[in-house]
Amino acid sequence: MPPSWQHHIDEIMGAVSLRTHAPLSRDARMSTAQLGYVRMLSLTGGPLRMSRSPRLIRAIPCDRVAVVVQQAGTAVLTQDGRSTTLLPGQLALVDCRRAFSLDQRDPFRLLLAALPTYALAMPEALVRQATGRSLAATGTAALLLAHVERLPAVAAQVPSRTADLLGGSAVEFAHLLIDEVAGVEHRPPGQAREQLVPAIRQYIDTHLSDPDLSPERIAKAHHISVRYLHRLFEGEGVTVGRLIYQRRVEECGAELARRGHASPTVSAVAARWGFRNPAHLSRAFRSVFGMTPRQWRMRNLALLQRGAAAPSTTPSARVAAVPDPRPSGTSARLNPTDAHGRVEQLS
Q: Pick from 108, 109, 181: which is nearest to 144 by CA?
């Protein structure tokens, strides 16, 4: 067995034992690729047995789940009390945190895509229900197989940001497939939501000035999938994208409410809080507060000239404290704020 094979397979699957039934032929070859946090390994060779024992797991832990695509030859996969035959065109999932064996009994061609468990963001018990099974290329399995098979060819041809997104798509397809095989709709447990949501809200507040702040970037920073991120916010009454939007408008409103010559221009405020241009900020103001930035500034100026108390620094209280500049007979009504004092929606 060439030392390079052992090294690269160990990098993908954790420490494994490799056994060949005969010397590798001249046709044997190996190639690697990486797209973001997804590692790829293509193998072509003769009969080969790959296994990971409890002893190896204790010695060298590996927190990855591998998508195994059988492209040629026949293999037998055993894990979690199940044993299955893999035929060409089928795929399987292998959890490298637990013992397994993959026995290629003929000359074979195999593709492995290793996904970090932190990106997959699923309970180990749920993943266990999907391992040790051969999955035909239908439904979600077909989408995952087709996507994974195309990744090695494009890995060196796309910029790093695109590679990250392509790798992330593989994780999303795998997540969907595990849910489908397990037959359950997994949702984040309460403890995970209680811990992550405040941290994510703080991250959003810290990075509001970055115009590229997005759910994809937030998910990557917290080592979770975009799908899991959206699930975390299902009970928050606001989507992640809308929260970013509202918090930017609130911070812009705070700056535009400054009195006298200290008040910055609308263009400067828009640039400081991640808006592409003043027109973008104006549209955002209308959607959240029902008025333009100029109207917002005028109503705060009128309030100060009458000697009223300065608006509160709490976004929801600040909005409520300022009188409505629209003609009599009309009124602006803000829905109740969320638990964090942020305006959820203007009706």
A: 181
Distance CA 216, CA 143 (A): 21
Residue 175: both structure tokens together: 């997540």
pLDDT digits (tens, 9 = 90+) for 61-103: 999 999 999 999 999 999 999 999 999 999 999 999 999 999 9
Report how far residue 31's alpha carbon sits from residue 8's, in angstroms, rounded to the nearest whole number. 9
In terms of Cβ atoms closer than 10 Å to its own Cβ (0-12, 13-18, 19+), residue 38 is: buried
CB 284 within 8 A of CB 311: no
Query: At what angle are helices 240-256 and 278-289 packed, to 10 degrees?
Result: 100
The whole-model pTM stands at 0.57
Q: Alpha helices of the chain — where are they, by DSSP H?
A: 3-13, 54-59, 117-120, 124-128, 139-154, 160-182, 190-206, 215-221, 226-232, 240-256, 266-272, 278-289, 293-305, 315-321
Written as one string, the DSSP assignment of 88-156 is TTEEEEEETTS-EEEEE-SSEEEEEEEEEHHHH---HHHHHTTSS--B-SSHHHHHHHHHHHHHHHHTT
